[in-house]
């Protein structure tokens, strides 16, 4: 695939990664000379109308957006049974990789990044698009620090948001960041993106996701009924005001979340300002009010907002116990409601996965083999694995599955997974010093491709290899291209003698040097045609073909140069009742210059005295068209 050219314009340069349905490459827009990202739908899905429709939806969704915090889509096409999208290339790394490297972010850094992410999401919402798969893997951080939202592959328009996704539909999005309503098959709205963005913010603040588990099912169920440890409980450096903002954005009941992304951003800003301006004493004094507000909103949300204990010191525990004693009956009712919701959600998800003693086969293509095997065995399916090398699929990722996704099968059914061992690694042999033919045979015998370039050498015999890239001993994938440089020997290159007459001496020296030639001698002579310092003659005629390294003699003017002369220009503009733009241009030994430029009425008679040097020509233009031209003298 490397070197492939789409639409006679977009060249594949290197593979960046792969997912379940698409492979992503870094490419070059050869027309504009800029780096691009090229996303290609996997071959096995190219004939699947559903996958193609989703793939095109991504391009259509993002193409309608234009924002600094959203990856731009430049082009979309279909060629040789391959559907592809050409997007903006962001040089940097994913937010997920940054979190893996650094753990919890500094508060200011986390706020700066989430603000940019939310700005991009807000722009999408303003254009009627819900992302539905906000996660740090889909956030790219450029070297300039700018965050960009990408991968709108499962985006949905807001005109579709009232659609109810039944329990037989696939759960879309990533399980660690999915909203409760997506797990339960309920309508998806802008508030689903707010929830997922809040999970991303939570992970930046704490260095970990809020819910974890052994299986995707257990993680999904925690979004529906799990207890949320607040960010300041996990990372004490998180201001409590900011922790409450995250809690509200992650309410299980969408109605209890912020009404819009803009409101979420304003709450973050207010929390940061409060945290930087309020003292500890003031924070302690407002604790009772904050706790009361928390429990009041829990009651309003009808038990859909479980939270972990907020403070663990003795003083606060006494306040909490007192509050529970005064409202014991209320909290018993809330507890019963919570248990009922949990049971209902568990039954619903259980019917979705296991109803009628059958299970719905999930799509595990592109997943890590261990995760895929765990997912399938948890559903009661039997798994067998075969491995094969694949230069387009990373090691340990699933290439294909024997049972198609979304079909219902009985428990115990065997599903065969083909897993990639990655591209077969080959040690590059040493071919430096070998003849070109011997080098090609040695490399091709190893399953490698060869690209040959040539250059002169005074140390390596003609026809032998001067250098190679990658170097000997490096490991590369099967089918990789090895570049070898072959010697042309000491044979001199041919060059064409440039025209130096009329150039300044400094310009002539630079031209001679760039051509691989040398100046043997510089002579001087008086000249009435050229001013002092201008080349008037060269020993080798311009256009002559000669070998590099030849010597040239130049003759340079000492002056005095051309003397000034004058000429009268007379011209009558056509009398047609219209105005016309008239220009008079003089071209002579000192260059070309405009001596007259005016708008005149039709019928005007122009008489102009012009100055010229040595000899040249006078040109008269009317409305941009050349009307007359005269040689002078």
Describe this structure in words.
With about 625 residues, the chain is an alpha+beta fold. Strand 5 (about 75-80) and strand 6 (about 80-90) form a beta hairpin. The strands form 11 sheets. Strands 1-2-3-4-6-5 form a 6-stranded antiparallel beta sheet, covered by helices on one side. It has a 4-stranded antiparallel beta sheet with strand order 29-28-31-32, with no helix packed on it. A 3-stranded antiparallel beta sheet has the order 7-9-10. The protein folds into 6 domains: about 1-90, Phosphorylase Kinase, domain 1, CATH 3.30.200; about 90-350, Orthogonal Bundle (Transferase(Phosphotransferase), domain 1); about 360-420, 2-Layer Sandwich (Trypsin Inhibitor V, Chain A); about 425-485, 2-Layer Sandwich (Trypsin Inhibitor V, Chain A), CATH 3.30.10; about 495-560, Trypsin Inhibitor V, Chain A; about 565-630, Immunoglobulin-like (Sandwich), CATH 2.60.40.2560.
Low-confidence segments, ≥5 residues, pLDDT <50? 154-173, 278-321, 341-356
CATH homologous superfamily name of the largest domain? Transferase(Phosphotransferase) domain 1
CATH architecture of the largest domain: Orthogonal Bundle
Q: How many DSSP H or I helices?
A: 16
What would the CATH topology of the largest domain be? Transferase(Phosphotransferase), domain 1
Quick check: average pLDDT? 81
- Widest sheet, order of strands: 1-2-3-4-6-5
Distance between the termini: 66 Å
* Topology, number of strands: 32
* CATH class designation of the largest domain: Mainly Alpha
Q: Beta fraction of the residues?
A: 25-35%
């Amino acid at each position: 695939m490397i070197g492939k050219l789409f639409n006679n314009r977009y060249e594949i340069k290197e593979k960046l990664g792969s997912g379940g349905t698409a492979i992503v490459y870094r490419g070059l827009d050869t027309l504009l000379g800029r780096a691009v990202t090229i996303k290609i739908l996997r071959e096995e899905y190219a004939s699947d109308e559903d996958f193609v429709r989703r793939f095109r939806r991504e391009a259509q969704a993002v193409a309608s957006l234009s924002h600094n915090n959203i990856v731009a889509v430049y082009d979309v096409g279909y060629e040789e049974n391959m559907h592809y999208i050409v997007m903006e290339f962001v040089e940097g790394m994913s937010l997920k990789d940054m979190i893996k490297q650094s753990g919890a972010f500094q508060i200011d850094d986390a706020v700066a990044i989430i603000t940019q992410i939310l700005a991009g999401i807000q722009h999408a919402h303003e254009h009627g698009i819900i992302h539905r798969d906000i996660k740090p893997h889909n956030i790219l951080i450029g070297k300039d620090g700018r965050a960009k939202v990408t991968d709108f592959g499962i985006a949905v328009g807001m005109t579709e948001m009232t659609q109810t996704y039944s329990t037989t539909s696939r759960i879309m999005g990533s399980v660690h960041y999915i909203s409760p309503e997506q797990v339960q098959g309920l309508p998806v709205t802008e508030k689903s993106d707010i929830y997922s963005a809040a999970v991303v913010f939570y992970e930046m603040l704490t260095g970990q996701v809020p819910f974890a588990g052994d299986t995707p099912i257990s993680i999904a169920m925690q979004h529906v009924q799990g207890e949320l440890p607040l960010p300041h409980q996990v990372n004490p450096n998180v201001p409590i005001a900011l922790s409450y903002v995250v809690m509200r954005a992650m309410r299980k009941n969408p109605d209890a979340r912020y009404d819009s992304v803009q409101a979420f951003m304003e709450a973050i800003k207010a929390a940061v300002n409060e945290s930087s301006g309020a003292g500890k004493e003031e924070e302690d004094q407002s604790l009772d009010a904050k706790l009361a507000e928390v429990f009041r909103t829990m009651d309003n949300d009808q038990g859909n907002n479980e939270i972990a204990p907020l403070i663990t010191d003795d003083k606060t525990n006494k306040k909490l116990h007192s509050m529970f004693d005064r409202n014991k009956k209320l909290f018993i009712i809330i507890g019963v409601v919570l248990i009922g919701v949990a049971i209902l959600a568990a039954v619903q998800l259980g019917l979705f996965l296991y109803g009628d003693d059958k299970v719905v086969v999930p799509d595990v293509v592109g997943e890590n083999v261990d995760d895929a095997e765990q997912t399938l065995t948890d559903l009661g399916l039997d798994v067998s694995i075969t491995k094969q090398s694949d230069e387009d699929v990373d090691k340990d990722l699933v290439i294909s599955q024997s049972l198609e996704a979304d079909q219902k099968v009985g428990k115990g059914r065997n599903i065969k997974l083909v897993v990639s061992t990655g591209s077969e690694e080959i040690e590059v042999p040493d071919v430096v010093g070998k003849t070109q033919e011997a080098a090609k045979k040695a490399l091709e015998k190893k399953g490698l491709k060869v690209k040959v370039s040539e250059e002169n050498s005074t140390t390596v015999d003609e026809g032998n290899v001067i250098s190679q890239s990658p170097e000997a001993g490096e490991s590369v994938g099967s089918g990789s291209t090895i570049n070898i440089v072959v010697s042309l020997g000491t044979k001199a290159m041919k060059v064409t003698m440039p025209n130096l007459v009329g150039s300044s001496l400094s310009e002539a020296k630079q031209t001679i040097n760039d051509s691989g030639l040398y100046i043997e001698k510089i002579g001087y002579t008086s000249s009435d045609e050229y001013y002092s310092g201008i080349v008037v003659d060269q020993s080798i005629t311009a256009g002559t073909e000669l070998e590099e390294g030849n010597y040239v003699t130049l003759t340079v003017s000492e002056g005095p140069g051309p003397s000034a002369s004058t000429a009268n220009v007379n011209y009558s503009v056509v009398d047609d009742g219209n105005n016309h733009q008239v220009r008079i241009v003089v071209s002579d030994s000192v260059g070309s210059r405009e001596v007259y430029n005016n708008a005149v009425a039709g019928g005007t008679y122009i008489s102009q005295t012009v100055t010229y040097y040595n000899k040249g020509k006078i040109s008269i233009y009317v409305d941009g068209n050349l009307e007359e031209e005269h040689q002078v003298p």
